[in-house]
Amino acid sequence: MSVCLGLDTSCYTTSAALCTTGSGAGDSLFLQKRRLLTVRPGARGLMQSEGVFQHVSRLPALVEELLAECPAGCRVEAVCASVRPRPAPDSYMPVFRVGEGFGRALAAALRAPFYPATHQEGHLRAARVGTGLAPDAPCLALHLSGGTTEVLRQDAQGITRLGGTRDLHAGQLVDRVGVALGLGFPAGPALERLATDGQAAARYPASLRGLDCHLSGAETRALADIRAGVMAPEDIAAEVFDCLARTVARLVLAGCEQSGLSDALLGGGVASSSLLREQVKARVAARNRRIRLHFARPELSGDNAVGVALMGIDRLISTQKEAREHGGDVD
Question: What global pTM score does this model have?
Answer without folding.
Answer: 0.89
